[in-house]
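can u do me a favor
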């Protein structure tokens, strides 16, 4: 976390006042007496009070900054995850024959949703720029640019299913960086979502694919849907509406969990494409 002038100033004031108070107290104890000693004692009390107030205010400011930091990172991780999941939906629609036949008519809708979430990500990066460490800001910008590039290149639906290795590989690289970022800054939510994904994967069982390229990607898509359904079943929040899939999740409650799932499955997709 970066240092800020107010925190530094308060810390220095508190430390100097404390050191000055201790120094005067020692001097008064050994070298001063009478009225001079009394005045020195008053000065020591004032300096100690200043030190305490300065350090307490610094601590409060630090806690407030930490809350702002946590809120900023949570918003960035959520919006990045939502955009990532949108792009993976587009890739599976393009690559999986069963997903293509079921969802190609909604392709334009999926593009619009991805663009909307990408816009939210950009807004969050700009809005929380002062709360980000330089390396975090650089990672967020790099992630945003890569996903915007993907949305632009996926804008036109294919006429038939097509598995594009370079797109899956690029998203696998984005996932690795975002996963590392989430492990570091995601806090309790990351741990909870990871446990939920582990439980859903365990409940559904290990993925087993077919022997050829298109068949494997089709199986992977079906497996992904099965794990998503188990995740929704086990973590569904009691509310006025039922979330049956990510398109129903207008509060983005499940986008981070879906992102963690995609992060787990992307290496399998990339391996399937490389083996074809």
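np, heres the sequence
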């Amino acid at each position: 976390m970066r240092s800020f002038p107010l925190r530094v100033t308060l810390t220095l004031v508190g430390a100097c006042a404390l050191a000055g108070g201790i120094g005067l107290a020692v001097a008064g104890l050994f070298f001063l007496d009478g009225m001079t000693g009394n005045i020195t004692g008053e000065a020591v009390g004032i300096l100690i009070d200043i030190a305490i107030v300065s350090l307490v205010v610094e601590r409060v400011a630090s806690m407030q900054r930490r809350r702002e930091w946590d809120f900023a990172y949570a918003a960035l991780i959520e919006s990045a995850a939502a955009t990532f999941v949108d792009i993976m939906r587009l890739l599976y629609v393009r690559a999986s024959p069963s997903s293509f036949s079921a969802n190609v008519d909604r392709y334009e809708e999926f593009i619009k949703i991805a663009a909307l979430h990408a816009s939210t990500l950009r807004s969050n990066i700009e809005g929380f720029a002062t709360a980000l460490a330089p390396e975090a800001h650089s990672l967020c910008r790099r992630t945003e640019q890569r996903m915007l590039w993907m949305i632009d290149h996926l804008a036109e639906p294919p006429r038939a299913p097509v598995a594009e290795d370079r797109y899956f590989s690029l998203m696998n690289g984005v996932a690795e960086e975002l996963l590392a970022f989430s492990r570091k800054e995601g806090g309790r939510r990351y741990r909870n979502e990871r446990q939920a994904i582990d439980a859903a994967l365990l409940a559904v069982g290990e993925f087993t694919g077919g022997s050829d390229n298109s068949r494997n990607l089709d199986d992977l898509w079906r497996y992904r849907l099965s794990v998503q359904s188990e995740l929704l079943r086990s973590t569904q929040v009691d509310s006025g509406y039922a979330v049956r899939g990510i398109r129903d999740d207008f509060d983005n409650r499940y986008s981070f969990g879906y992102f963690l799932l995609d992060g787990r499955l992307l290496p399998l997709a990339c391996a399937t494409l490389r083996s074809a």
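The first helix runs from residue 5 to 31. hope that helps!!
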